[in-house]
Design goal:
Blueprint (H helix, E strand, L loop, with lengths): L1 H12 L1 H14 L11 H14 L7 H5 L1 H11 L2 H12 L4 H11 L6 H8 L4 H26 L8 H25 L1 H6 L4 H19 L1 H32 L4 H12 L3 H11 L8 H39 L1
Helix pairs in contact: 1-12, 2-12, 2-16, 3-10, 3-12, 5-9, 5-13, 5-14, 6-7, 6-13, 7-15, 7-16, 8-9, 8-14, 8-16, 9-10, 9-14, 10-15, 12-16, 13-14, 13-16, 14-16, 15-16
Length: 324
Amino acid sequence: MDQVKKICNFMSSNIAVLIIIFSVIAFFYPGGFAWATNYTTIFLGVAMFGMGLTIKASDFRIVFTRPKDLFIGCLLQYTVMPLAAFALAKAFGLSADLALGVILVGCCPGGPASNVITYVAGGDVPLSVGMTIVSTILAPVCTPALVYVLAGSWVEVSLLTMMMSVVKVVLIPVLLGILIYRLFPKQVDAVRDLLPLVSVIAIVMIISGIVGSNAEKILTCGALVMIVVAIHNGIGLLLGTGAAKLLKLDEKKVTAIGIEVGMQNSGLAISLATANFALNPLATLPGAIFSVWHNISGTLYAGIRNRKKAENAGNAKAQAAAES
């Protein structure tokens, strides 16, 4: 079992590398992965169910004990990234498909990967988990409403249909996972080490399927989407961090909020594009590229925050020595 745990931890911590490897394979051998797009919703549902199985009752305590922190984090989550996506789509003159895809990513809740990156960065993990839970629960209302308002000038958006899609692929699987863990905690704990592996496989298959089915189109617009996605993600990380600092939160909370705002549940963006915008096939591409990029940038951000934390600790130690 220890060996299995090591494999799962390795794959979880190197998910960006795995996504890149399988995306490259899918690009050159699209026939081997394009089929996966038919099961995007199922793969995401499995990943969200796995997330639900990892949520304990104690994780909800933060909702009641630290409402101010959660409110700040979720407010930034559902304002910074959606508005940044809209601004970038306008500034770069994106086509309807790509504009929709970027806005979908911006309007999604935080993803589970942000909790791992927050841990690596030495941030406030309970706050990160709480933000992911709350923003996910709010997603059936917030995500469709924001897409309806912001993407309406490019495409026709059915608000009710999108709400039902989010409920089916996010809310129900997460709540089901929470319920299963509540009813069978010992059994779930026995296989807990395997859960990250299931989610990693699901996400990798979603992204590989998108790359495989859009291999030719990536050649024509992939560079543009990469630039927009990188700027979008950077805005989220920087403004999330900056806003938390302006509100005078401590450094651990600043780190958690910066990461949570910048890292989206891009798998949901892909699923919503697939299920609700079949006439806009390229709308899945920004989410696929974001899935790769935000894991890379999140890791880099974690390194920067860790260096800053070490510098602050060194300065504090030097100051204490000087005063003594």
